[in-house]
Amino acid sequence: MIESATPYGQVQAVRKFGGKRFNKRDREVKRPSSDTGKKPNTPCWLCGALHYVRDCSYRNHKCSDCGQFGHREGYCESAKPRKPGHRRFRKPDVSSKVVVVDECSVQQRRRFVSVGLSGTDIRLQLDTASDITVINRETWRKLGSPALTPTPPPTSPSSTEKHGGNSAARL
After folding, report:
1. Which of 3, 89, 112, 152 is 20 to 30 A from residue 162's alpha carbon, by CA?
2. Residue 113: which domain range?
3. 137 lies in a domain?
4. pLDDT confidence of residue 20
């Protein structure tokens, strides 16, 4: 018995608990034993074999890849504990953006080549993926204003048709 020095003269008693105490570790959790022959739905994340993790022989194994204990080589990423409810999935990239370009300066990425046509040196933009070369009026005049001939009708809509052009010069 312990007597406290409170002004009211209270007495506190300590007595032995006679009932049974239950802790989480005292309870037996029923799990399917490895003897029953049941196989898990998914393979072991420590080694990849089809058995329960509690029966895995790699639980005390030192991985030679990462140097940590508890998994087989090659299972380093899957051996990391994950937060409950956390799933690895990518959200689809959805965005809408409006961009206004007032000035476009891409001169440093463009490649130009000097070409001699009909005795005149002209500078053209190099485009290896283009079937045709479009020139401005000034360059056309430098070339001596060669005669323009109508282009054959395209089999499918092309950039010539979209931009209203219908003439070409063959040099």
Report:
1. 112
2. 108-147
3. yes
4. 57
